[in-house]
Every structure is written in C-alpha cells, then in structure tokens.
Amino acid sequence: MKADVFDPRALREAFGAFPTAVTVITASDPAGRPVGFTANSFTSVSLDPPLLLVCVAKTARDYPAMTAAEHFAINILSEAQKDVSIKFARPAEDRFAAVGWGRGPNGCPIFAQVAAWFECSMHDVIEAGDHVMMVGRVTAFESSGLNGLGYARGGYFTPGANSSAAGGEIGAVAVLERHGALFPLGDQNLALPSYSAGSGDPAKTLASQLEQLGLSVHDWFSLFDL
Questions:
Q1: What residues are paired with 48 via a beta bridge?
Q2: pLDDT tens digits, 37-64
Q3: Domain annotation for the chain: domains and CATH numbers
C-alpha cells in the first residue's frame, strides 16, 4: 500500500504481523502511587551502557506520570499472565489489585511470576509522532527462566508451547488415486502409505518409495499438526 496518508487500521494490522513480547510498564506517580499499563513496543538498545526503550502513546492515561518519573520498570509477562496483560490494557481504578507485586530497589512496582523484569533510570524521552520513546538505563534486573507471553496479529501465543509442538515427530501420508477413485492398500482397504523420520524429510522419503513402485507422485500440499 502506497499513499501519503495510510489507513490507520491497515497500518496497525501490518505492524501487528511482527510478533512481540508482552510487557507491563510501571512507575510511581508524584504521590508514590503505582501506575502502569500494557505495552508491546519494547526493545533492548545497548549492552554498554545497558539501555532499553519502550514507546508510550501520548493519549495513555498514565502518560504524564510515566514520562515525568525518574525511574520506571519493565515487567516481561510470563505465558501464564495473559489475564494480567488484559487487566493493564483496560481502564481500571486499581489494576494492581489483580497481581502480586513489590517494590524494586528504586521503588518501581515489580510483578511476581514474570519472565523477567528490568528497573531503569530515565535516560531520555524522545518525541516520536503520537508516541514518545522512553529510553531507560538498566539499574537492576532479574530473569526467572519462565517462558514469556507473545503477541501477534491481535492474539496471544506462548512461544514455549509452539516450540514443543514444532519439535515433535514429522510424518508424511499419501493418498493414492486410480482411475479417479481412491486406491487403498491392504486387504482391509483401510491403510494409507505413510512414513515417519526423525531427522530426514519424510515427505521426500515416502515419495521416493512410491516412485520405486512405479507410481507417479504429485506435489505435496497439506501440513497438519496432529
């Protein structure tokens, strides 16, 4: 799509094709009350010095308190914290009542059971259209080893579960046709020729075996997660 002015919804959907982590950004307002909201526009910036950044919409309810804070924290949610993400993405008077949390070394709210957290001093605030980029210098952090929660195309996913499924055994099954009708194998007319391989390509191996039987093999076109 090319235009001087893009359709915001279409552009948002295109941005959403990029899978991200899900975080809750937290800080304290001038009265010491905790503030925070869900954000997925987070990235690491530098190891030396240790810098990260997060983008904050200027329309966010806690935008004034967040950008004025001397310190803020990034809570990277774990795969079991989808409800926390939803809670902090919606307007609510007391979002923090729904999650266990404590104060970090610099007083920022740190959540329990997160995949990782970072407490930062405010390094810079950079204007960027309808958002600002908050660049933080990491002053403390901790990683729990828990799998993080992911977000893409308007939905949540758990990378750990997806990786486990992808690591399973891959198999190939062929459907044979003879004169326009299915051609089963065996006396019971129930068996389909199949092959499974741990490290090889089962589809290519099965195709090779069928070709050795004098059968014509056409392109494979379906992939199923069973």
A1: none
A2: 999 889 999 999 999 999 999 998 899 9
A3: 8-164 (2.30.110.10), 170-212 (no CATH)
